Amino acid sequence: MISVVIPSYNRRDCVVALLRDVFAQQAVDFEVIVVDDCSPDDSVEAFRREFPRARIFVNEKNGGPAVTRNRGIREAKGDIIVGFDSDVTIPDVRLLLKVANRFNEHPQVDGLAFRLLKPDGKSEDSPRWWHPVPIDKYADKQFYTSYFSGTAYAFRREALVEAGMYPEILYMHYEEVELAYRILDGGGEILHCPDLVALHHANEVSRRSEVTVFYKPRNQILLAAACLPGFAAVQYAAPRVVYQFVKACRGGHVKDFFRAMRSARTLLPTLMRSRKPLKYETLQRIVAMKHGLAP
């Protein structure tokens, strides 16, 4: 069975539209889990009223996307997790069936990265393309990747659990990057599938500016500390910190930048206690993927 996990925060109408698409899926056994992250609107009541088949959970306090997705994964009964962010729609009524078939066709694959298009159904959602190969050459191709977007994806539940699921210390931003690395480090594979399409309506999260000026510079440091061996961590983090500082100076966000640095310093001792650098072989696989090579 497939478990569809949808995190929700203050996006009632968007989630309602997504749920209608999900419940229109055909020819496959699935359940739907919505985890609400303490929305201040009437989202939960609306979901329960219109979609009695959905399993609705509400966080006791706002925990962010990583916490919310992880709760959905823990509550799931299926052996395949399909995750959708609240601002997507699903035009293909057999999308979940395609997911199940793809896992059957590729038993060695742990995760599927969906193709994200803009609402017109034709244009690529380029801001969400963090794959190691160029979008203009690979968007319509199947390839092994070191990345997936939390906007729309599918994983074997067992692989997510063994990888530690989403790193909750990051709260939001870069949590998919670290999880993808952990999947690869455990010997898993992630396959980009151009026929698995979700339309991304790109509603701005309530704290989008906070992502840019705070979470991004902070989490780049935390990601490097958590995943990369000594010198590689410095090579990754140092130029990014410099770039983010210059960007903050130009944008008038210097105070936010230093707030991010203080937060990173505060969290580093906790993170270092569970630090697990990627294996050398994993780093080599990630480099190979930049050339579109199979793992």
In the residues, how many domains can be counted? 2
* CATH topology-level fold name of the largest domain: Spore Coat Polysaccharide Biosynthesis Protein SpsA, Chain A
CATH architecture of the largest domain: Alpha-Beta Complex
Described by strand count, sense and barrel closure, the largest sheet is: 9 strands, mixed
The low-pLDDT segments are none
Query: What number is the mean pLDDT?
Result: 94
Strand content: 15-25%
Q: How many strands appear in the DSSP assignment? A: 9
Shape: globular
What gyration radius follows from the Cα positions, in whole Å? 19 Å
Query: How many helices?
Result: 11
Q: What is the CATH homologous superfamily assignment of the largest domain?
A: Spore Coat Polysaccharide Biosynthesis Protein SpsA, Chain A
Could you give the order of the helices and strands?
Answer: EHEHEHEEHEHEEHHEHHHH
Keywords: Glycosyltransferase, Transferase
Pfam families: Glycos_transf_2 (PF00535)
Organism: Luteolibacter rhizosphaerae
Family: Belongs to the glycosyltransferase 2 family.
Structure description:
Helices cover 46% and strands 17% of the residues. The chain has 295 residues and is an alpha/beta fold. The chain folds into 2 domains: 2-200, Alpha-Beta Complex (Spore Coat Polysaccharide Biosynthesis Protein SpsA, Chain A); 208-277, no CATH class. Strands 1, 2, 3, 4, 5, 6, 7, 8 and 9 form a 9-stranded mixed beta sheet that branches. Strand 2, helix 2 and strand 3 (55-58) form a beta-alpha-beta unit. Helix 1 packs parallel to helix 2 and helix 8 (208-227) runs antiparallel to helix 9 (230-251).
